[in-house]
Amino acid sequence: MTGPHGDRARSERDRRFDQVLERLDRASSVVITTHANADGDGAGSEVALAAFLRERGADAWIVNPTPFPVSFDFLLPNREWVLPPRSGLEARRCGEADLAVVLDTAQVPRIGRVKSLIRHLPKVVIDHHPPSDRPIDGIVVCDTSACATGSLVFELIDRAGGPWPPPVAHALYVAVMTDTGGFRFSNTDRDCFRVAARLVELGAVPEALFRTVYGRFRVRHFELLREALATLTVHADGRIAWMTVPKDVYDRVGATVDDLEGFVDVPRDIDGVRVAMLFRTTADGRIKVSLRSVPPIDVGAVATGFGGGGHARAAAAVVTGPLGEVIARVLRRVERVVDEQGAGMERDNLLD
Ligand SMILES: [Mn+2]
Q1: Which residue has the higher pLDDT, 309 or 279?
Q2: Domain annotation for the chain: domains and CATH numbers
Q3: Which of the residues 192, 193, 198, 315 could staple to 303 if both were Cys, CB 3.0 to 4.6 A apart?
Q4: Centre of ligand 1 from the C-alpha of residue 236, in Å
């Protein structure tokens, strides 16, 4: 952010950070949560904040609407920081806590069952998504210019002057790395590299963290990818592409959503594609569509139109209906957006 407007936004954000730090100073037991199906940013931000608070002598517990993601549990110095879902312990710790911190979402529906567990607690929200119509009440630090919630947690801890126990550096590096697709997506900016550089100084090891996150696929990931690739469809003069995840194969190989990591990148990475989509059938029989776009195309609005949400370049929605019908409906909307916003785009002039 530059210029007077950016400076004002930044000083307002810093004022909120000071309020957050004041709340954290007074809290002796904090419950930390994030959105359902936590990603590297949500999970990494949780671990980092918990490690920071524990280093300062507070109790900090992670309570998530869905199980803590297996692919990121290597970040946890102690598995017991994550309270067992729906346990007596979980209810007791939430009852004893004096503050809740919600990370990487500011929306009530996204925290699912955790809503009632933290209903009685004052709340702090730290997020980088556009504001929603169902905001969580509390002290809210929302900066949509931040590449990741992890970079905001970094700013918070930096403002406090540390401490920086090793799990903080590892977890925040993973948060920033995953939300920028390994420092490649459009949210990869100067601030993001500045934060990453500081985290490396503080002990994060890029190669080891990259390999741990992106180099540990299970065979079933590739078995499923092989079948999904067979569905690859390119449309609208090569400007729109998508794949579907065959439900029968998904079930047969015993896949989980973790196994779909990177699938939507396949159609996105085809030369000339402006919007990429991945369709899959959810456990309750509805269709989840993940959308990706290249600038300036905004697929966030498309997802919102189907009751979902997300960022301009990465968004998702869950739609009811048979797969073929859902594809046709989403495709109609996407075709319009590509026609309206993609006029004059030339892939070979990306750097202009
Ligand atoms: Mn995020």
Answers
A1: 279
A2: 3-214 (3.90.1640.10), 220-349 (3.10.310.30)
A3: 315
A4: 31
